[in-house]
Specification:
Elements lengths: L7 E3 L10 H11 L8 H7 L6 H11 L6 H18 L1 E8 L1 H6 L4 H13 L1 H5 L2 E9 L3 H12 L8 E5 L11 H9 L3 E6 L5 H9 L5 E4 L7 H9 L3 E4 L1 H6 L11 H6 L3 E4 L4 H4 L3 H12 L3 H13 L5 H14 L1
Parallel strand pairs: 1-2, 2-3, 3-4, 4-5, 5-6, 6-7, 7-8
Helix pairs in contact: 1-2, 4-6, 8-9, 16-17
The structure holds hypoxanthine (HPA) and zinc ion.
Hypoxanthine binds next to helix 3.
């Protein structure tokens, strides 16, 4: 049978957002840590009631206290790869939030080695090409971002770029101009969350001041026709996360999501899962949901998958191979 969703790249995934309730309980038991419940079903039920980004982040950060050791991070990454393989992921460029873990007393080395030992072998173990992107938590400010980047530079070979996540409004990209310049000088790729809850001006700042190569979310760019034209002309990829946008109420319903308009405008829009353990599905679930609720047919799904491949930081020869797989799927 032909797979119902295309082979794809996944470019907007927080590895910490793949911590399924079962793993949460197992790690809490391992380290003797408290949880609101030991019942995965009860924990999952809590994830169904976010009202905005902040209410999600409060649960997300609290849960991350169970990640203590290099082994825990390796297990988290391996769990994602197992699921990504089933989802048809060929390339994953995965966010991680080191500041959270360091705040919890975990050595940075344990975080990076735990994740990278799984991801660097993923091509052999899972047939998934995988790389890490270190994210700064914007609500901790620019000095903390510079501090974590400096601390991570001894592990430079284990990550390919930097990103910017966490609470958006009130923490515009302009605050992070210096640390992005530092990252650029190190030859790191640059992406940033912008235009999820923040407006189109956050997207402009990310482009003009942080010189990002991709915009994460970016859906509110659709409010600004001039910006839309620029994103199209400069072929700036947007890593859109439909189920996340509904869960965090960035859009009211999936049926009203701007994704079809983004494609009609010729934007390099891609489909991603963001925090799949919380938002109701992995990247294949997101493809199925937009196919069903937005009436996207197979050629449109293939277009989204091609966009995702073009938007990766992977070598051209890999991109050609994945494009051929998408053509075969179609
Ligand atoms: N937005 C911003 N920060 C995040 C998210 C998100 O959806 N998930 C994890 N950190
Ligand atoms: Zn995100």
């Amino acid at each position: 049978m032909i797979a119902p969703t295309p082979p794809t790249a996944e470019l907007h995934l927080h590895v910490e957002g793949t911590i399924e309730a079962e793993l949460l309980v197992r790690l809490a038991d391992r380290h003797g840590l408290p949880l609101p419940s030991r019942d995965p079903a009860v924990l999952r039920e809590r994830y169904a009631h976010f009202v905005d980004l902040r209410s999600f982040l409060d649960v997300y950060y609290a849960n991350l206290a169970v990640l203590r050791t290099e082994e825990d991070f390796h297990e988290l990454a391996t769990g994602y790869l197992d699921r990504a393989l089933k989802a048809g992921v060929r390339r994953a460029e995965v966010f991680f939030d080191p500041q959270t873990h360091v705040q919890h007393g975990v050595p940075l080395e344990a975080v990076i080695h735990g994740l990278s030992s799984a991801f660097s072998a993923a091509e052999e173990t899972h047939g998934v090409s995988a790389a890490l992107i270190l994210c700064f938590l914007r609500d901790l400010g620019p000095e903390a971002a510079e501090e974590i980047l400096r601390a991570a530079l001894p592990f430079r070979e284990h990550f390919i770029g930097v990103g910017l996540d966490s609470a958006e409004v009130g923490y515009p990209p302009s605050l992070f101009t210096g640390v992005y310049a530092m990252a650029a000088a190190e030859g790191l790729h640059r992406v940033a969350h912008a235009g999820e809850e923040g407006g189109a001006e956050y997207v402009r700042e990310a482009l003009d001041l942080l010189h990002v190569e991709r915009v994460d979310h970016g859906i509110r760019a659709m409010e600004d026709p001039e910006l839309v034209a620029r994103l199209r002309d400069e072929r700036i990829p947007l890593t859109v996360c439909p189920l996340s946008n509904v869960s965090l109420r960035a859009v009211d319903t999936l049926g009203e999501h701007p994704l079809p308009r983004m494609l009609d405008e010729g934007l390099l829009a891609t489909v991603n899962s963001d925090d799949p353990a919380y938002f109701g599905g992995y990247v294949d679930d997101n493809y199925r949901a937009v196919a069903r609720e937005l009436g996207l047919d197979r050629p449109r799904l293939a277009q989204l998958a091609r966009n995702s491949v073009d938007a990766t930081f992977a070598p051209e020869e890999d991109k050609r191979r994945w494009h051929a797989e998408i053509d075969a799927w179609l």
